[in-house]
Amino acid sequence: MTPQKCRVLYVDDEPAYGRLFSRGMEDDDRFSIITATSGEEALRILQDCPIQIVLTDLLMPRMDGLHLLEEIKRCWPAIFVLMLTGVDSADKAVKAMKAGAYDYILKPLDIAMVRLQLGKILQHRQLLQDTLPPAGDDYRFENMVGKDPIMFKLFEKIQQVAQSEATVLICGESGTGKELIAEAIHARSRRCDKPFVRVNCAALTESLISSALFGHEKGAFTGAATQKTGFFEYASKGTIFLDEIGDIPVQTQVALLRVLEMGSFQRVGGTETINVDVRVICATNQDMSTAVKEKTFREDLYYRINVVSLAAPALRERKSDIPLLAHFFLELYQRKSAKTISGFSGPALTRLCNYHWPGNVRQLANCIERAVIFCQGRQILPEHLPDELHNESEHDFSLTLHDSSLASVEESLIRTVLEEKHWHLSHAAEALGIARGTLYSKMERYHIQKDS
After folding, report:
1. Structure pTM?
2. N or C: which end of the chain has fewer CB atoms below 10 A?
């Protein structure tokens, strides 16, 4: 069966560019090209035809690329948008990326570079689609929602880590979905048909946590009327997820270290050695290196649980996903409430995108659930949103960049990241979201050297 082509909508008020792009792509059977000569025409096409990727010129009369991007994010948040600009203008490019564009491309177009960018998006879409049934959404990876480039890097790491048996430490703020990451690792591992046991270490008292994890024998302590099986035994052959691992008391850390090193433990009050085959995934919102320095967490245990480290990004670091997540939660909660709400008004979505979300995705979900409760019409309006969203002011990055060219901003960003990563090129390239070879090329272009 021939795979379905990816539909690409090219929007430019200069028809000649559209023709050049169509001719340049006609021998690439991965894509089907549709062109439009205005933002208004593009919206009409989007209403009638499923589109996966939009390339739009930034500067167009009447409806410019930024306005079109806002409408796409409001109505079709799963679409990938690439912004085209023939003007070396940093403030416009920054606004486009901030508003949710996947990336920008300079005109005149280099078709080879455009194909590489489109191919990258195809790989990302395939990564998502491989986890779903045929009718699944194009923006979901297992149980997570996201299409921001930072999420794709995370998805790719999950895919690689899942195939190993390594212990994983997931770091991130509260509400970022650390448990969802752990579930995705288990779901894609060889243990997927075995138990996945969740343990919130912060919810267990110091006197009970060892019994909860490892079980206890009858009479081990006052109230231990019967023998109890612990979470590690329940997770046999499967995965145990230890959330808030930093809250485990020191004496329990010793027993946990033994499980990781020897694959065995003893129940509280018992002498029998119990062997288990369990993969351990941990999560924390603490700075574990500080905990080690302060002697509240064993250094040897820290190195045992930190074989592979994954970072759950804060929502403010993946703001392009806010419209996608907002629509996802809207669909979820309107079904539960038996309401029919078509979407968000422009001002409401703007407030959602401008807010800094200290509670991350969990806070956004609660916000949308509240909005659905109070919405009596067909759209979520600003008045349906919590008060804190009405006091958030948008930071205007263009105020600091209005005299800068796109090239100078890019050069400055590369230099800053290289310094932050101590000139470790692989780490810098990963932080910038580009290939190491691309970083080499840009360093050569801007004459960036370590001693410069």
Report:
1. 0.76
2. N
